[in-house]
Specification:
Length: 294
Amino acid sequence: MIRRSSLLSAPVRLTALLLVLVFVATGCHRGAKKDADEGAPVEQLFEKSHKLMEGGNWSGAENSFKRLIAQYPYGPYTEQAMIESAYAQYKAGKNDDAVSSIDRFIRTYPTHRNIAYLYYLRGLANGNRDTVFLRRVWSLDPSRRDLSTPRQAYADFNIVTERYPNSRYAADARQRMVELRDIFAQHELDDALYYARRGAWVSVVGRANYLLETYPQSAFQYDAVALLGEAYTHLGNKTLADDARRVLQLNQPEHPWLAGNWPKYPWMIRKLNPFAGERSVATGQSNATMNRGK
């Protein structure tokens, strides 16, 4: 019995040894694949990451740039990799991550030669935070949501235009500020229309005047004037109502309020959609967008 057991144990030990060798070899092979970029020159890693970006592989480019930064934490390639990584995050829709990456870069390199671009990119990312999914699914008007991140985007673009007026990003930043101001103005107009629908005419006057004072020459300035005319008419102040009518007749004679066709409120069935809220009466109800810059 002892001899038979000892004879059988030899092939068992051999099999076990072979299994161990196969396991070790497989593990080493996997490790070699995983660490293929380990120790590669920084130039090579940067080129590989940049090619991923050119191919639109934003997540792959982000991860590749991060590996470069981990291996080479200092130097011009690393600085550029940090910038490119933030851009890849923005393009991938990771706006929160992009803003965090940009903030870290600005803290670390506040006088970097590309700092104007970083503020501009932060403005783009902030302008899209918390909005992409909802706007795609329910087509929500941007003026109907929380405006904290768009206001931060406005501040970012303002930094570009004021601190770096000669940069290549200043002109586009100014245009985006105009568009954001119109969103803010429409938000105020929507609030005024909310009060108008409920007959709170004093509140309507306050909101409309705030819009005109805070966002002069916005795309919705004459809608605000029309609301003033409507409010003063209901409040019995014929003098101020006539003043508002004269302003509209001189500056926007085609405004539908002059013909008694504005504002028109949306179909009540929209209230069944908990995400829609009250649709902006301003959108598509006047020729406001034709009057920017008057």
